[in-house]
């Protein structure tokens, strides 16, 4: 009985060995050929993608669009090579494509939010309402664009925080792009006895001598309004976004020192309290 079982097991092992041997003999060259085709395709996709990137850099085209096109070219070449390799193995890709299409339809309905982010990302990359290095404000969130992906856009602020915004929340929204700078708005009061022209001249001199203030865009300084405290002076100027608060604080201090040296006081509201007995 044991001898019969041992003979059956040996016969099964022999059959498996024969099957593997016949498979390798019949398909080994196909496997090697398909593998070589795929490896050559990967190498070719990488070379073509780098060539596309160099051409974009040569013509000074935006890096975001360059990365998108080069990655798209790489994916297309790899997909074509994969189809050729499967055909080399004798596998028909037509039923596979049909199955992938049916599965994609179901998956698309399940991940509509993700697909909408990808569609918005393609819109951003093609239309280029902003590029890497610009300062944008969307939905009251401000930061410097660090990277643009298909699904989201990454911003950074002065604190070094990374802010990830899904692209569907950018496309179709009101978008402010101040490029590399950000606007500073400052208001303060002076006494009605003070000369506003002198104050404007002092503030203009401080901003003109400041290395933190962007000199390409002229600042706006003038009388913003009148109130019970005094004459309200308004100042608007631009500073680099990466050091927005630091530049703002240093500039405010310089303006205060200039006013203090010139003997111009900044009044504070005074309330009189009468106590009746």
How would you describe what is shown here?
With about 280 residues, this protein is of the alpha+beta class. It has three domains: about 1-90, Orthogonal Bundle (Helix Hairpins); about 135-180, SH3 type barrels, CATH 2.30.30; about 180-260, Alpha-Beta Plaits, CATH 3.30.70. The protein is built from six helices and eight strands, in the order H-H-H-H-E-E-E-E-E-E-H-E-E-H. It has a five-stranded antiparallel beta sheet with strand order 4-3-2-1-5. Strand 3 and strand 4 (about 160-165) form a beta hairpin. It starts with a helix and ends in a 16-residue tail after the last helix. Homoheptamer.
- Read across the widest sheet, the strand sequence of neighbours is 4-3-2-1-5
Shape-level CATH architecture of the largest domain: Orthogonal Bundle
Number of helices: 6
Unreliable segments (pLDDT under 50, ≥5 consecutive)?
A: none
Question: How much of the sequence is in beta strands?
Answer: 15-25%
Biggest sheet statistics:
5 strands, antiparallel
Question: Termini distance?
Answer: 121 Å
Average of the residue pLDDT scores: 83
- Which percent range fits the helix content? 40-55%
Order of helices and strands: HHHHEEEEEEHEEH
Structural class: alpha+beta
And the CATH topology of the largest domain?
Helix Hairpins
| Rg of Cα set | 34 Å
Number of strands: 8
Shape field: elongated
| Count of discrete domains | 3
CATH class of the largest domain: Mainly Alpha
Pfam families: MS_channel_1st_1, MS_channel_2nd, MS_channel_3rd
Organism: Shewanella atlantica
Membrane topology: Multi-pass membrane protein
Domain Mechanosensitive ion channel MscS C-terminal: 184-266
């Amino acid at each position: 009985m044991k001898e019969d079982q041992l003979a059956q097991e040996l016969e099964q092992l022999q059959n498996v060995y024969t099957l593997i041997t016949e498979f390798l003999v019949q398909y080994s060259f196909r496997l090697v050929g398909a593998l070589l085709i795929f490896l050559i395709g990967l190498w070719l996709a990488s070379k073509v993608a780098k060539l596309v990137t160099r051409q974009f850099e040569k013509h000074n085209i935006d890096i975001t669009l360059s990365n998108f096109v080069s990655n798209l070219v790489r994916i297309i070449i790899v997909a074509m090579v994969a189809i050729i390799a499967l055909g080399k193995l004798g596998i028909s890709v037509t039923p596979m494509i049909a199955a992938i299409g049916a599965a994609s339809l179901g998956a698309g309905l399940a991940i509509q939010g993700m697909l909408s982010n990808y569609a918005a990302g393609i819109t951003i990359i093609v239309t280029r309402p902003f590029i890497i290095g610009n300062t944008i404000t969307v939905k009251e969130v401000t930061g410097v664009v660090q990277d643009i992906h298909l699904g989201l856009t990454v911003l950074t602020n002065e604190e070094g925080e990374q802010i990830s915004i899904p692209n569907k929340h950018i496309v179709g929204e009101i978008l402010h792009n101040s490029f590399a700078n950000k606007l500073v708005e400052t208001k303060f009061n002076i006494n009605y006895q003070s000369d506003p022209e002198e104050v404007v001249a002092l503030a203009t001199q401080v901003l003109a001598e400041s290395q933190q203030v962007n000199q390409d865009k002229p600042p706006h300084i003038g009388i913003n309004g009148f109130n019970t405290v005094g004459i309200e002076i308004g100042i608007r100027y631009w500073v680099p976004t990466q050091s927005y608060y630091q530049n703002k604080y240093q500039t405010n201090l310089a303006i205060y020192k200039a006013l203090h040296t010139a003997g111009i006081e900044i009044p504070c509201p005074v309330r009189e309290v009468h106590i009746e007995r």
